[in-house]
Design brief:
Number of strands: 0
Distance between the termini: 121 Å
Order of helices and strands: HHHHHHHHHHHHH
Structural class: mainly alpha
Strand content: under 5%
Biased composition (Acidic residues): 241-256
Protein name: Cytoplasmic protein
Radius of gyration: 40 Å
Largest sheet: none
Region (Disordered): 192-256
């Protein structure tokens, strides 16, 4: 059921100017019956000015009169031809003025890390236009030298669920078209939850590749087993070392 404009202000006006029941006003405005009672008691919407639904072409006086006579009568919104199709309007989302300066950085991040996203998807995510996206893709944007890629979720321009949904849609489209994807592109098409749950693949640095198959030869192994090392042999001096020391002492004494 369609709801009136400024529902709470309309409820304030109906409470102050009609004898409609709380349930009738709540059903018409899309509010809870207790909230309407709070408006009547002055606990809710105390500073809200009433919005006249008759003057604003949302209700007729005859409709209000009929509802006041019959407590079971449900108010119906007046048909307004000018409002037809308003709920189906599509286009870029509204971006607050304080965050509009961050949109180029968000677009650069999406173009860099998710090149599979279409311009229409990016425009819907961050609330921009296709010409702006094209200039950033081609790096002809007037401020491209000062731009840095920043996650639009971190900037508050879109939700993580919205970004994941767009990525999944792009993945389904790529799979349907049968295009081959690299490993890096396939990782980018995963949602955040899937990428966090995935196990890390063990990787061996190229500098030590082949060491996992390294083993000692049979001859070396047998030699090591046949000739065990003795710890005391490291402290035994080779034969003839004492005589050499004595000769060095004699020569030194003679020179003195």
């Amino acid at each position: 059921m369609a709801k009136p404009l400024m529902a709470k202000a309309t409820a304030v006006w109906l409470v102050d100017n009609t004898t409609l029941s709380f349930k009738q006003i709540a059903d018409f405005c899309g509010l809870h019956e207790l909230e309407i009672q709070g408006i009547a008691d002055g606990d809710v919407a105390s500073g809200v000015k009433g919005f006249d639904p008759i003057a604003n072409n949302q209700l007729t006086q005859s409709e209000i009169d009929a509802a006041e006579k019959d407590p079971t009568h449900r108010l119906s919104l007046k048909f307004n031809p000018a409002a037809v199709g308003e709920e189906k309007r599509r286009g870029p989302r509204y971006t607050p003025l304080s965050k509009r300066q961050d949109r180029p950085n968000a677009i650069l991040w999406l173009v860099k890390f998710h090149p599979e996203l279409a311009d229409a998807q990016i425009a819907k995510l961050v609330g921009t236009t296709k010409p702006t996206i094209q200039t950033i893709r081609e790096r002809t944007h007037w401020n491209i030298s000062n731009m840095q890629p920043i996650d639009p979720v971190a900037l508050g321009l879109c939700k993580q669920s919205e970004l994941d949904a767009a990525v999944q849609k792009a993945a389904a489209k790529r799979a349907k078209e049968g295009e081959a994807m690299s490993d890096d592109e396939r990782r980018k098409l995963l949602s955040t939850e899937q990428s966090l749950e995935a196990e890390n693949e063990p990787r061996i640095p190229t500098a030590i590749e082949g060491l996992e198959t390294f083993s000692l030869s049979g001859s070396d192994t047998s030699r090591v087993k046949e000739e065990p090392l003795d710890a005391e042999s490291f402290f035994n001096l080779p034969a003839g070392s004492d005589d050499d020391d004595d000769e060095d002492d004699d020569d030194t004494g003679g020179r003195r």
